[in-house]
Amino acid sequence: MRNYIIKRLLIAIPVLFLISVGAFLLVHLTPGDPADMYISPDMTKDQIELTRISLGLDKPLVVQYVDWIKNLMSGNLGFSFAKCKSPY
């Protein structure tokens, strides 16, 4: 029984990893720029670039994924647009 549980836990690790990569890629493959939600029409190009930097969108996808996993593991689920505040 112990071997069965260990075997299932070892199988769960790559499955959870693949699910997390799939979810991350689905978010990034959607059309449009995530920074568009924060950008107003009267912003300058410098302000838009600062917004992208503050959101971490200037980093490579691998670094963005690692940051996303760190935030997910620490319970930081991001910003709620419905309540206009952090969910935690």
Poorly predicted runs of 5 or more residues: none
Shape: elongated
- The total of beta strands comes to 0
Mean pLDDT: 87
Ends distance: 39 Å
Q: Portion of residues in helices?
A: 55-70%
Compute the CA-based radius of gyration. 18 Å
Task: State the helix count.
Answer: 3
What is the string of SSEs from the N terminus onward?
HHH
Structural class category: mainly alpha
Query: Largest beta sheet, briefly?
Result: none
What percent of residues are in strands?
under 5%
Task: Explain what the structure shows.
- By secondary structure, the protein is mainly α.
- The chain contains three helices and no strands.
- It has helices at residues 2-29, 45-54, 61-73.
- The longest helix is centred in the first third of the chain and has 28 residues, at 2-29.
- It is elongated, with a radius of gyration of 18 Å.
